[in-house]
């Protein structure tokens, strides 16, 4: 009869949960409790020591310090923290692009302002009533130039033509005060103006040079703003449910497993982040094109289009044109009279314009070419550094934010335990995530917000390409522009045409360097202890009947 207590004792020993630490007591959860409280959560219900983890849905179901509520809270926290990392990284790029825009915009506006001020300072002394009675014509010109630069829907060539027409009409009347010149007569005179060239070659020459310079400057400034806006909108894209689970497993599951001091494996982190930012990486091609296009236009601005000289000397070219008209006044008037007939003599008293003209003042242009050269050099350096932003973002986040271990570390968190991480690192972009072992990514469903931003990059690059060859472009709002071809550029037909799902047959196996879990909530070490428990049960089965038979 003494056999039964002994057999019962053996059964109890065999059925007790086996621990990887060979019977040592449960580990303390003090570190997790401290972290959990520091994140702003209540410590009520948080275990003091490890508990069985069958309830876990994201983390490995071994012994754990996390309840279901803690796992959910950590998942939400990891999501908000990862999105904050994205926004912080994006703000740095935005700040760089915005600073470049601000520097160039300030330089260009200052160039235009100085030219206008020089005109206002010198023209009253140079031309007397020729200027004072026509101030609005000059003010309107600079106003139109500013509006064009700020991307208003203005035809720059037409604006310049209108300026010369209005100026010619006003000056012709002032230089011929003895005649009564009607609007109809002025219309006739303007029709012959191109043939007579009253202002010499200045209008044609200035139109060609100023148009190219303004187109380049406007597109260049706009390119920085578009780039910044794209980064802002893409940085606000929310994480998917699958990505949230993967980031939680990366960042907080080691704490739940009592491995707070173990850093994530670098390649493991890269696969998680590349999976989460697969759509963002598809911006890379068009983003690089934009950066390259901005650098090409920058060279034009500081080179052939010579913005400093062209914009900074507008007032001097106008003065040159007026001087041409004054010097050839008699011959031009004769040609106009010949083509349009003699106007009637005015009954009003006439006064000579020449008597009202002041002494000649020399106009000078203060060059700021060196400042422009420095601006362009600084911009090109920053643009070069930003070219690979989208495909280097995962590495940057893993090394600087997630604080992943070194690539050679074999004692890092690999998603299951402390060890090495064996799966290969995925490529960049959506199509390369079909076999990502860490994040479920549907490569047939590109993010539409990001596809729209890819289209914006294409449109801006096209504008810069036109500016590079001196073609005007229409800066209308294209925020809603989307086309089927644009949304699919990063998802080839041979991929998007087939709705691929990550079934076990197409997905690479997870080859973490740990034993396979038993599925009953025990860790790898516990699984290795099970054979000894089975031997005990077998011993009971053999020994107990023998004692009973005796």
TrEMBL record:
<feature type="signal peptide">
    <location>
        <begin position="1"/>
        <end position="20"/>
    </location>
</feature>
<dbReference type="GO" id="GO:0017134">
    <property type="term" value="F:fibroblast growth factor binding"/>
</dbReference>
<comment type="function">
    <text>Cell surface proteoglycan.</text>
</comment>
<feature type="region of interest" description="Disordered">
    <location>
        <begin position="475"/>
        <end position="526"/>
    </location>
</feature>
<dbReference type="InterPro" id="IPR019803">
    <property type="entry name" value="Glypican_CS"/>
</dbReference>
<dbReference type="InterPro" id="IPR001863">
    <property type="entry name" value="Glypican"/>
</dbReference>
<keyword id="KW-1003">Cell membrane</keyword>
<keyword id="KW-0472">Membrane</keyword>
<dbReference type="Pfam" id="PF01153">
    <property type="entry name" value="Glypican"/>
</dbReference>
<comment type="similarity">
    <text>Belongs to the glypican family.</text>
</comment>
<protein>
    <recommendedName>
        <fullName>Glypican-1</fullName>
    </recommendedName>
</protein>
<dbReference type="GO" id="GO:0009986">
    <property type="term" value="C:cell surface"/>
</dbReference>
<dbReference type="GO" id="GO:0005886">
    <property type="term" value="C:plasma membrane"/>
</dbReference>
<keyword id="KW-1015">Disulfide bond</keyword>
<keyword id="KW-0654">Proteoglycan</keyword>
<dbReference type="GO" id="GO:0045202">
    <property type="term" value="C:synapse"/>
</dbReference>
<keyword id="KW-0336">GPI-anchor</keyword>
<keyword id="KW-0357">Heparan sulfate</keyword>
<dbReference type="GO" id="GO:0040037">
    <property type="term" value="P:negative regulation of fibroblast growth factor receptor signaling pathway"/>
</dbReference>
<keyword id="KW-0732">Signal</keyword>
<keyword id="KW-0449">Lipoprotein</keyword>
<dbReference type="GO" id="GO:0005576">
    <property type="term" value="C:extracellular region"/>
</dbReference>
<dbReference type="GO" id="GO:0016477">
    <property type="term" value="P:cell migration"/>
</dbReference>
<dbReference type="GO" id="GO:0098552">
    <property type="term" value="C:side of membrane"/>
</dbReference>
<feature type="compositionally biased region" description="Low complexity">
    <location>
        <begin position="481"/>
        <end position="494"/>
    </location>
</feature>
<keyword id="KW-0325">Glycoprotein</keyword>
<dbReference type="GO" id="GO:1905475">
    <property type="term" value="P:regulation of protein localization to membrane"/>
</dbReference>
<keyword id="KW-0964">Secreted</keyword>
């Amino acid at each position: 009869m003494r056999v039964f207590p002994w057999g019962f004792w053996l059964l109890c020993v065999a059925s007790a949960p086996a621990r990887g630490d060979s019977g040592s007591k449960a580990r303390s959860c003090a570190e997790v409790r401290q972290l959990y409280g520091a994140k702003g959560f209540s410590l009520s219900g948080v275990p003091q020591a490890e508990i069985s983890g069958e309830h876990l849905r994201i983390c490995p179901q071994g012994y754990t310090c996390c309840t279901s509520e803690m796992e959910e809270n950590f998942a939400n926290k990891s999501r908000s923290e990862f999105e904050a990392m994205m926004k912080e990284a994006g703000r740095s790029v935005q700040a760089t692009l915005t600073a470049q825009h601000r520097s160039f915009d300030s330089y260009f506006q200052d160039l235009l302002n100085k030219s206008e001020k020089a005109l206002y300072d010198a023209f009253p002394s140079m031309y007397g009533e020729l200027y004072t009675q026509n101030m609005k014509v000059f003010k309107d010109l600079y106003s139109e130039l500013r509006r064009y630069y700020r991307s208003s829907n203005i035809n720059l060539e037409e604006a310049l033509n209108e300026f010369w027409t209005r100026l010619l009409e006003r000056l012709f009347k002032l230089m011929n005060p003895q005649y009564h010149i009607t609007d109809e007569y002025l219309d006739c005179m303007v029709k012959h103006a191109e043939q007579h060239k009253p202002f010499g070659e200045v209008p044609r020459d200035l139109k060609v040079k100023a148009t190219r310079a303004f187109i380049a400057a406007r597109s260049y400034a706009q390119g920085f703003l578009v780039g910044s806006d794209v980064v802002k909108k893409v940085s606000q894209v929310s994480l998917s449910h699958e990505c949230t689970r993967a980031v939680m497993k990366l960042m907080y599951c080691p704490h739940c497993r009592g491995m707070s001091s173990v850093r994530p494996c670098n390649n493991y982190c890269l696969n998680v982040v590349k999976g989460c930012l697969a759509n963002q990486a598809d911006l890379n091609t068009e983003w690089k094109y934009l950066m390259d296009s901005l650098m090409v236009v920058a060279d034009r601005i500081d080179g052939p289009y010579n913005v400093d000289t062209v914009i900074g000397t507008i007032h001097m070219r106008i003065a040159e044109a007026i001087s041409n008209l004054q010097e050839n006044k008699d011959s031009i008037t004769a040609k106009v009279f010949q083509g349009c007939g003699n106007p009637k003599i005015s009954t009003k008293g006439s006064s000579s314009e020449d008597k009202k003209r002041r002494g000649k003042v020399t106009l000078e242009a203060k060059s700021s070419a060196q400042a422009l050269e420095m601006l362009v050099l600084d911009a090109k350096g920053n643009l070069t550094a930003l070219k690979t932003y989208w495909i280097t973002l995962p590495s940057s986040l893993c090394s600087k934010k997630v604080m992943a271990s070194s690539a050679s570390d074999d004692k890092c968190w690999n998603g299951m335990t402390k060890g090495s991480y064996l799966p290969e690192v995925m490529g960049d972009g959506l199509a390369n995530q079909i076999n990502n072992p860490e994040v479920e990514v549907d490569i047939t469903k590109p993010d539409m917000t990001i596809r729209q931003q890819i289209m914006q990059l294409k449109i801006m690059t096209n504008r810069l390409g036109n500016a590079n060859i001196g073609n005007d472009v229409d800066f209308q709002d294209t925020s809603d522009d989307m086309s089927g071809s644009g949304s699919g550029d990063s998802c080839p037909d041979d991929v998007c045409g087939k709705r691929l799902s990550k079934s076990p047959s197409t997905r690479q196996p997870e080859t973490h360097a740990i034993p396979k879990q038993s599925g009953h909530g025990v860790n790898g070490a516990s699984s290795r202890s099970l054979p000894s428990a089975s031997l005990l049960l077998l011993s009971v089965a053999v020994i107990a009947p023998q004692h009973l038979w005796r």
